[in-house]
Design brief:
The structure is a homodimer. Chain A is α+β, with helices and mostly antiparallel strands. Chain A has helices at about 5-15, 35-50, 90-105, 130-135, 140-145, 155-160, 190-195, 235-250, 290-310, 330-340, 355-360, 385-410, and strands at about 20, 25, 50-55, 60-65, 70-75, 115-120, 180-185, 200-205, 205-215, 220, 255-265, 270-275, 275-285, 310-320, 325, 345-350, 365-370.
């Protein structure tokens, strides 16, 4: 069995968090100077571990084993959310590096090819899950032409040029070259911590369906317009939000979640009845049938509210991400490893968050491992995981990787 | 009886609408080049009508009769809302000018002193009702120091300096010099048009109570945070808005109005449960007792919603405008005049909108006259009133002014 180097793992995580350090976290948006420095640093580490390193045309960093055998991809995304945590993405990236090095160093596993990698822009500074979508062939040149930075509006093409990536080819998945893909990540919720578990084995990644819902009413003077004749789209949006809260539980699954993230009233002045209200709404579930049921209910509720308020409604679905089930054999490998290193402290669970694994899973066998998030906090610089859980997660993933590769390559445990 | 010059009235309204002309309306923010040109033009007209003209230190334009007798102030505000109508404010300003001229020209009324005026910044580009509050002594130098333009942030002091007003004294009301104040205005609602009336005699101007309500919850990941543990301040704000809609009618007066003008969720991203929601809310009524009742109810509902949602709530009252009742004798004078010129087509009504008259009414006898707004539209460039209603309103106000001045000065009708 491979033994990971816990000191080196923690040290590399600390080193990686220096790229864009911000308070106890990092600010490392995709293609920023700090992000590109971190990717070049990773490529150097891959080379030092005996791998061929490449940064492709969207910034994905690949460490390719020199062996001709099918390899197991292990990684996550390298960039961070704005002013966010040091582990979201970085954890899985450094796990991949550490496992590749451990395997290369140790006679037990030196022949088992690990291909560590780091995706670009899972966090969507330009477009969510950009790097992994490029890898599986779901990213068109047209989308690259159109994408701009959500914070400062820089076109993606200009960002790629500034990062020196504009003439670099993008790497596409070659399924016959890879055994599959493993990704470790912080949980970003409190389920593990709340139940005293230390390892989560992801069963599926939920699908996210997102909507922009617009109500059009009649803008008017807030003092002179009688209540009886108002057509107030702001009230319609508020009514939709509360009606969803009241009625979704009847149709939702036990783990469904739904969120109104934004309500904009136009023009937004205290003494003007708004003329328009825009609401951003999403729901998530691991079952497509549940997502479809909630979509039907949402559209019914929008119509009910529109009729009751005298407003016109438009519903635009802006994201239709289907749930992705993780590979059963890979889940089994992670579970066996967890049972060995953390007996009684592991659990199978769906992922409520999106991850590159849901994209890679379209083309390759894929599985994910979660470690606990302290207080369930994520997307904030105070996000953290204890060192012992960080070390445990890496060791569990390393053992799972060994058993997956041995199974796939037909090599008996312990063989050189 | 004075007879107004209808052609001159319409011509002056057209001329005044050239200052900052925008589509069929005007864009003439307070202290803009166009606004100051319109004020200087007014001052010239006052001088031509035999009055002493002054622009004071906040831009109020006064036309002062040379007679020592107590005069009747007639006017409104000269500036417009952004990209708004040609009559909001301008109507009452040009009525004052036309009535002053008609009185001066006609032997019947030449001895009755009319003092036309134009207030500055009723519309609140820097601070609502600025000019009239300055006139009654409610505007401090400290407030002038602090005020900035709501659109572009220019400090009021700098705007006054640019307009050449920084060393000019502000005029304060001298109650013994004035009989009272009359203001004509477009209705800004549809009550007159809907009931086929042509003249509104304002009984009172509603009080406006305004609030900033903040709910604090727990910001978290929209995918990984179970519904059961959420403390969603956005949902609390939506719930408050709908609960107000459901429960206010039980405590409100027949003409109470209430409006949620803005709901801001922070950070406002589709995949983040907001951590904070800010809601701007106001209600209006002509009776203080109703306002007090609604204030108590609002605070109860905020607490109910906060407890139910697990959020913390803060309520800050940002405006406490008390209702202002118009002078009964002045109302009577307008009504008699309306009965003469528009028999059966006038009505007493409260004003749902704020006006300078509510401020001046603190120190002087005050009344207001409304003319119909086509389609009830205001604060939009398409706002309009028919020429025949514009002419009628001015004639009704002129006759009312004569009867008020004769009553006050003890001059019999028709006496030279």
């Amino acid at each position: 069995m491979p033994k990971i180097n816990a000191e080196r793992l923690l040290s590399d995580l600390r080193r990686f968090a220096q790229f864009g350090a911000y308070r106890t976290g990092v600010h490392r948006p995709t293609y920023s100077t700090q992000d590109m420095e971190s990717r070049r640093w990773l490529a150097q580490q891959y080379e030092s571990a005996g791998l061929q390193a490449h940064i492709d045309g969207v910034g994905n960093v690949f460490g390719t084993p020199r062996s001709k055998q099918r390899s197991l991809l292990i990684g996550s995304h390298a960039e961070s959310q704005n002013h966010a945590g040091r582990l979201d993405g970085a954890l899985g990236v450094i796990y991949g590096l550490e496992i590749a090095r451990s395997f290369a160093e140790q006679p037990c596993c030196a022949g088992l090819p690990i291909a560590p990698l780091a995706w670009a822009d899972e966090e969507g500074h330009y477009s969510s899950l950009l790097g992994s979508r490029s890898f599986v062939g779901d990213l068109t040149e047209d989308e690259i032409d159109r994408a701009v930075n959500v914070d400062h509006g820089l076109p993606l093409r200009q960002a790629l040029r500034a990062a020196g990536l504009h003439d670099v080819p993008r790497y596409l998945v070659e399924p016959e070259r890879h055994v599959g893909y493993l990704e470790a990540h912080i949980e970003q919720g409190d389920a593990l911590e709340a139940s005293g578990q230390r390892i989560g084995i992801v069963t599926s990644i939920v699908g996210t369906w997102q909507y922009s819902i617009v109500f059009h009413g009649v803008q008017n003077h807030a003092g002179t317009t009688r209540m009886a004749i108002r057509k107030d789209p702001g009230l319609a949006a508020a009514r939709l939000s509360t009606t969803i809260a009241d009625r979704f539980p009847q149709k939702a699954g036990p783990r469904s979640v739904w969120t109104t993230g934004r309500i904009n009233l136009d023009p937004g002045a205290p003494n003007i009845i708004p003329g328009k209200a825009v609401m951003l709404f999403q729901f998530r579930d691991a079952e497509t049938a549940v997502l479809e049921r909630l979509d039907v209910l949402l559209r019914e509720l929008v119509q009910e509210v529109a009729i009751a308020s005298g407003c016109q409604a438009e519903v635009a679905q802006t994201e239709i991400g289907l749930p992705r089930h993780m590979d059963p054999a890979f889940q089994e490998a992670i579970e066996k490893s967890a049972a060995r290193h953390a007996p009684g402290a592991y659990v199978r669970m769906p992922s409520g968050a999106s991850h590159d694994a849901q994209i890679v899973g379209k083309k390759l066998k894929t599985a994910m491992l979660f470690v606990p998030s302290r207080g369930g906090i994520s997307h904030h610089w105070s996000e953290d995981t204890s060192d012992t859980d960080v070390i445990l997660g890496c060791q569990v993933l390393a053992d799972a990787a060994e058993s997956i590769l041995r199974g796939d390559l037909g090599i008996a445990p312990g063989a050189p």
